[in-house]
Structure formats: C-alpha cells, structure tokens
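This section describes the prediction task in plain terms. A model, or a person checking by hand, is given the sequence of a single protein chain and must write out its three-dimensional structure as a string of tokens. No templates, partner chains or ligands are provided. The sample shown here is typical of the held-out split.
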Amino acid sequence: MKEISSKDNRSFRKALSLKKKKYRDLYGEYLIEGPNLITEALKEGAEIEAVFVRPDFDELGSEGALLRDERIEGKLYQLSSSLFDELKDTETPQGIMAVIKKPEKAQPEIGEGDNIIVFDRLQDPGNIGTILRTADACGFRLAVFIKGTCDPFSPKVVRSAAGSIFRVPMFFAEDRDQAVDFIHGLNKTLVTTAMDAEYDCYQCDLSRDCAIVIGNEGNGVDPELIKRADLKIRIPMEGTIESLNASVAAGILMYERIRRQNERSITANS
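The expected answer:
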C-alpha cells in the first residue's frame, strides 16, 4: 500500500478534482465512499481506478477484506487523516473511498416490454439518487437524463442511489428533442404527468414499454414535453395539495409496473 501525505501528490489531486463535474466529465471517473458501496461496485463489475483508506481504517475486520481483493491490487493508497477528510463528502468518514471509471457510452440494450425513467431537469441530488434506486427496485432498464439535470455521478447522488448507480444504464440527451426521438426510436410510450390529464395513473397500464418523465422539482415537466407526450396522466390527490415530492411521485408511477404485473398474475392463477 502506497502512503500519501502531500497535497501535491498527483493521485490525490486528481481524486480531489472529481468532486467537480467538469473534471468527472474530463476524466470519465467519479468518487464513491464507504465499504458497502465499494463492495457493490466490485460485485457489479465496475472498473476501480484507485482506492484510498484512512490510517485508522480497520484492515483486519470484515470490511478490511476489501483491501485483499485482487481487483484493487496495486491501486491502494493510504491517505493521511487530513487528506482523507478533505476528499470525503460525508460528515462522518467511513475510512475508505474509491475512484470508479464511468461506464462506456453505448447503445443501451432495451428490449420489448422494458420501461424507462426520464429525468427532466431535476436538481436535487437526493431526489435523483432515490429515483434511481426505486427504478432499480421496479425493474426499469434505463435512465434518460435530459441536459439541465444534476450530474448523476455527483457524490450525493451516488450515495443516495447506493448500488443502483452500477445497475441502471444511463443515456444522456442534449435536449428534449433528442430525448423524445430516442424514446420513440425504442418504441416506448412517452408518459408525462399533467394537471389537466384525463386519466389517473391507476387507470392506465404503465407496466411495459413506457418512458415515464419526472419533471423539475419547482416547475414540473417541460410544457413542450407534455405537448409531445403519448400519454398524459395525473396522480390523484385529496385536499389542497397540488404536487408531490419528485421522488415520491416517481415511486408511485414506477411501482405501477409491479402492481399491474402482480394483478395479472393473480388473475391468471385464480
């Protein structure tokens, strides 16, 4: 294990720069923190570029087994406590971090029946990470990010998404037109929420071949996207509430896939 105690060390400076989006884009890498997330990265086959540990990290405990994984051999660095604390993004350091290579950009393998989640200019990292995690749980096969959405590889998104960041493929659209053309090219139904929608989400089958758009926290779905939607729906609400938190709304809509599938299964077996 190599020891680093100087701020001028090249490996440390590069890792520190990854806290900013422009350098994550430049190097095609991002940071993850904590033994659980690094374990998930190894499990899912993510490419690890470097691993940094704090001097007080327990190498002999169960979490220390990570350091003996052959996939990080020669990539392990011990940072001084002050350098590690400068690199970390959490209040309480977990003692281990890693630099991960972003997945190669490629045409996603989306099949018939697969669903997609679409991020339309969302800004809250916690919302984006939670939605990615829920999409993973609901069997969604792709996340589309329209330009203007917070970087999904930012530390807070990665932490909120947990291991789902490694399992849900991503496509980045330069604008809404590219996103719509891409979605229709995959033969998916573009679904948006709208206040004046004729149907409640429970009246529509969202279990297959849907691309569900989640809009900006403050302004909702882009009106031009709503105009181009193949299906407009609303989430029924009582009282004077006009909207839901973006991640809550996304969860309701995405879990319609599972609810409908279970409904069909019960009907088929009755």
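For orientation: Residues 2-101 form a domain with the 60s Ribosomal Protein L30; Chain: A; fold (CATH 3.30.1330.30).
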